[in-house]
Amino acid sequence: MDMSTLMVRKRQTKVQSMRGDSSSTPGQDERPSFQLTMLRAFLLPGACRDVYVLKDIQGYTLPEVANVLGISKDEVTKHLRRARREMQTS
């Protein structure tokens, strides 16, 4: 198995655990919560949204996010902090 396959499986597992999936289909109680989280994430400002989705939802590491978006790790940290603060208050 190559590294890209392992990373995809890791991210799928993380998303399933965020949904509360113990099987392939989420229960009725977990799905609205996950959908609400995704909706709130997509209402974030551009860079904050991109960083939050890649890091906290899809499970990328800080260096991976910085590389994908073409920004420094410090900027990733700054946008992630802002996004998490906004997610808590909304």
What's a quick, concise take on this entry?
74% of the residues lie in helices and 0% in strands. The chain is an all-alpha fold.
Structural class: mainly alpha
Order of helices and strands: HHHHH
CATH topology name: Arc Repressor Mutant, subunit A
Radius of gyration: 14 Å
Topology:
Blueprint: H1 3-19, H2 30-42, H3 46-57, H4 62-69, H5 73-89
Helix pairs in contact: 3-5, 4-5
Q: What are its keywords?
A:
single chain, about 90 residues, mainly alpha, Arc Repressor Mutant, subunit A, about 75% helix
Question: Mind explaining what this structure looks like?
Answer:
- By secondary structure, the chain is an all-alpha fold.
- It has one domain (3-89): Winged helix-like DNA-binding domain superfamily/Winged helix DNA-binding domain (Arc Repressor Mutant, subunit A), CATH 1.10.10.10.
- It is built from five helices and no strands.
- The protein has helices at residues 3-19, 30-42, 46-57, 62-69, 73-89.
- Helix 3 crosses helix 5 and helix 4 (62-69) packs across helix 5 (73-89).
- It starts with a helix and ends with a helix.
- 12% of the residues are buried.
